[in-house]
Design goal:
The protein has helices at about 155-160, 165-180, 185, 205-225, 255-260, 290-335; strands at about 10-15, 20-25, 45, 55-60, 95, 105-110, 115-125, 135-145, 190-200, 240-245, 250, 265-270, 275-285. By secondary structure, the protein is an alpha+beta fold. It is about 30% helix and about 25% strand. The chain folds into 2 domains: about 1-40 and about 50-70, no CATH class; about 95-330, 2-Layer Sandwich (Ribosomal Protein S5, domain 2). It is built from 6 helices and 13 strands. The strands form 4 sheets. It has a 5-stranded mixed sheet. Helix 2 (about 165-180) packs across helix 4 (about 205-225) and helix 4 (about 205-225) runs parallel beside helix 6 (about 290-335).
Length: about 325
């Protein structure tokens, strides 16, 4: 029988080696997750460093649990995520520029299993309320393919109306991109950003913003190359990611499974210079402290910095591809 600690409650954790540990359970904290036994190494693996929650220590169950200094000392629990991700780690991100050849700008963004195709179309003219103003306009449309989700979702065209969620996301994407575009430099042109979700596993709206900005940058660069614009109206890049609190732990870039269990869900849109465009934070079950909000914002900012690097890489790759294409066409004409 384990001794009774200050809390009067215990968490019994079985190590893979077979030995049992009786750990004091803090009543306001969640349980420690277990490592699956199939194919797992012998020993106990956990993340105990409260200053770096992603740094993991592992060791056999022969003595004190790693990092547990005192029997009743408050501890930071391990939180095990799919594919072994750390709490502050994003899913694998991939940006493929020029995915649709006929669009002025195009990019396929993949964040884990979430895939969103983003295309930028530039049209002459603006809405009636902007005519003769010398200013342009940026707007967005968002949609999900019927089998982007686990079960088929009927097309909104079948229902005869656009749903409230779709309206909300479209407006978010449009606001995010308008925040970084110089409308005067764009002139009286309208940019339509089409964001189509091919597969959804959480974070589709944030992926759409990141992908749409990449497609927009590519479209503007092509217009500059053809002489239609003197300079790109895109002042800086913008990207977005999700962050939340699941079982009391802050997690960056939530998958669908994590998002569905989150006590707090937040989407953050940020520019290259660190300016905030949008912060959407919602407590699903109970309120959360301001300190937790700042912690989530720190996680999100670190993730968005990585997304900006991915965007710059995709835009550069698109420019290099355009140069090679022009050179090949010039070579072909010269040989005729």
């Amino acid at each position: 029988m384990p001794k009774t600690g200050a809390s009067g409650k215990y968490l019994t954790e079985r190590c893979l080696g077979g030995e049992l540990w009786d750990l004091p359970r803090q009543p306001e904290r969640s349980e420690i997750s277990r490592i699956g036994t199939a194919g797992a190494p012998t020993g106990y693996q956990a993340s105990w460093n409260q200053h770096d929650p992603g740094k993991s220590r592992s060791g056999p169950c022969t003595g004190a649990v790693p990092g547990l200094k005192k029997y009743n000392e408050r501890m930071t629990e391990a939180f095990f995520r799919a594919e072994g991700r750390a709490v502050h780690e994003m899913r694998p991100v991939r940006l493929t520029p020029g995915y649709v050849q006929v669009a002025e700008g195009s990019a396929l963004i993949e964040v884990g299993h979430t895939r969103v195709l983003c295309n930028a179309t530039i049209e002459q003219g603006v809405p009636a309320w902007l005519r003769n103003s010398g200013r342009g306009w940026v707007t967005a449309e968002y949609g999900m393919l019927p089998r982007a989700t686990l079960t088929r979702t009927p097309r909104e065209a079948e229902r005869g109306r656009v749903g409230g969620r779709t309206h909300e996301i479209q407006r978010l994407i449009g606001r995010s991109l308008r925040a970084v575009v110089d409308m005067k430099a764009l002139g009286e042109r309208t940019v339509v950003l089409d964001c189509d979700v091919l597969q959804a596993d959480g974070g589709t709206r944030t992926a759409a913003i990141t992908g749409a900005c990449t497609a927009l940058a590519i479209a503007f660069d092509r217009m500059v190359a053809t002489g239609a614009l003197k300079a790109s109206p895109l002042r800086q890049l913008v990207a977005a990611t999700s962050v939340g609190i699941v079982e009391g732990t802050v997690l960056l870039d939530l998958s669908y499974e994590e998002d569905s269990q989150a006590e707090v869900d937040m989407n953050l849109v940020m520019t290259e210079e660190g300016g905030l465009v949008e912060v959407q934070a919602t407590a699903e079950r109970a309120s959360f402290a301001r300190q937790r909000l700042l912690e989530m914002m720190d996680y999100a900012e670190a993730g968005i910095r990585l997304l900006h690097a991915q965007q710059r890489g995709a835009i550069a790759a698109s420019a290099e591809s355009a140069v090679r294409t022009d050179a090949a066409e010039g070579h072909g004409l010269a040989s005729v």
